Amino acid sequence: MTHAVGPDEDAGDDRVAWTMPELPPGTVREVVRAPAEILATAGAEVDPTDPATVALAADLLATQAVSPGCVGLAAQQVGEALRVFSVDVTGHPKTRTCHGAFVLCNAEVLSASRKGKGREGCMSVPDLTGDVARARRLTVRGQLPVTGEWVEIETDAFEAVCLQHEIDHTEGLLFLDRVVGPQAVHRRQTYL
Amino acid sequence: MTDLLAVTVIGSDRPGIVADVTAALAGLEANLEDSTMTLLRGQFAMVVLVHTSAPVAAVEQALAPVIADGTLGVDVRPVADVDSQPVLGADHILHVNGADRPGIVAGITASLAAHGVNVVGLSTRLAGELYVLTAEVVLPDGVDELAVRADLDQAAQACGVHVRLVPVETDEL
């Protein structure tokens, strides 16, 4: 499957459109839960053309696809301290700009603005949610698996939040490390 | 002349605790000031500062019907009125998380106290094996922030948790 996920032409964007390279079939991996040490471990840079990285990219998308409500998954969450993550916010009601399903390697934030607060959850912290302030306008730079092509992704709203959450994972941070205050960590369920 | 009383109520949660307690206080014309109320697992906890001319015994008597079924405990005590001594608001947020074990809060807060760092808000959550502590703190003027961070890191390492101390961003509008 190939996704056409280039920059929005209507926005007058003159950057080169990019396409997510085709990946081999992925394997569904077990998702690690906090307080696993791997989730607090900053990831190492990867060679996006390395077959092991390509396989990891495919596994992330495969695992994400079978996990209800999962819009992104980082290498740390499947037990590897590497700078790789997947994102797919397609169809989410809070999504505006959408680049479909993709994987980025060695990604970093180039610019971030228009902070807004939202409540986040995470497959690796299944029992808690937290209020986190994150940029709603974001430009990220990273490499595509397979080709190693450097791409810039300019996005907003939910996809911007998701990218920041996943980049945090690759740096060993959870949303719990960014909640806005003591009253900002919530239980998903109340136990009576 | 009214006194400032601290009213603490804690017990098994049910709808109506806040309504019942505050109705009893309103019946004494006690004025509710700062308060915090939250659910800790299945226990509802509330601490309310009230200004009232009623003595402690009268407040306890007014609250007696609310706690009559034995599911709630109440404590009423006079506290010093410190309005004239403003306390600085939090300038940093402290994030701690890791595997649960006894002594995390003690270890982390001891390293803060050693530097005169004041905790003005703190909450913890235990979710399975995961322990999460989030606090609002005030660093005293002139404190060696690098030393605070170094000691926090050391305390966190000793407790097997991860710690982050982040400045509070206030957007003045």
Automatic annotation (TrEMBL), chain B:
It comes from the Bacteria. Transmembrane segments: none annotated. Pfam families: ACT_6 (PF13740). Residues 6-84, 93-166 form the ACT domain. InterPro entries: ACT-like_dom_sf, ACT_dom, UPF0237/GcvR_regulator. This is Amino acid-binding protein.
